[in-house]
Amino acid sequence: MDADARKTTLRMIPYGLYVLTSVDGDNVGAGTVNWVSQMAFEPPLLAIGVKDGTASLTNIKAGGAFAMSFLGSGQGDLAFAFFGDAPLEGDEFVTKDARVAVERAPSGAPVLAAAPAWADLNLVEVVEKGDHAVVVAEITDVGLREEAPEVLTLKELGLNYGG
After folding, report:
1. From CA 131, how far away is CA 126, in angstroms rounded?
2. In sequence order, what DSSP letters do the residues of the chain get, joined into one string?
3. Could you give the angle at the alpha carbon of 141 between the alpha carbons of 80 and 38, nearest 5°?
4. Contact 28, 22 (CB under 8 A)
5. pTM for the complete prediction?
6. Does residue 110 have a cis bond before it (omega within 30 degrees)?
């Protein structure tokens, strides 16, 4: 297979940007993810690519609570803030550039207060193949803070993560 053709082809898949958060006891994880797809209506399921070795994946596999904050167009600063794990202090994530306010989803997982939407998730299955695991999650609740939000995309930020 031609490596350049593969990269160009796979980068044609449009990707939104989201912050995946998880908590298992005192262990908290938060990181930007973009490999996300709805995979069923009933029950509502998502497939999420989560990088090996992250706190989020560790917490999810341990049975911790987790949620996903949907970033809106113009929220690139939030996407960049969570390119690495960020600690939680009270009701804020502390990133290298900012303190980011959170609220709690019904499961107890933190969600970003500034995100236009969020989904509370329940683990269905983890498929560990390659350098990212596929987390299959059922959506158990959602929050919508804007009527018709536009999702932040990699293209908007001039980034690629694929191929």
Report:
1. 13
2. --HHHHHHHHTTS--B-EEEEEEETTEEEEEEE--EEEEETTTTEEEEEEETT-HHHHHHHTT-EEEEEEPBTT-HHHHHHTSS---EETTEEE-SS-EEEEEE-TTS-EEETTSSEEEEEEEEEEEEETTEEEEEEEEEEEEE-SSSPPBPBHHHHT-----
3. 65
4. yes
5. 0.94
6. no
Structure confidence by residue, pLDDT tens digits, 25-74: 999 999 999 999 999 999 999 999 999 999 999 999 999 999 999 999 99
CA nearest to 39, candidates 146, 121, 160, 152: 121
88-89: strand order across its sheet: 88-89, 92-94, 99-104, 110-112
Question: Per-residue pLDDT tens for 86-111?
Answer: 899 999 999 988 899 999 999 999 99
- Give the tokens for residue 90: 């009270």
List, in order of start, the domains of the chain with CATH numbers. 18-156 (2.30.110.10)
The amino acid at residue 68 is: M
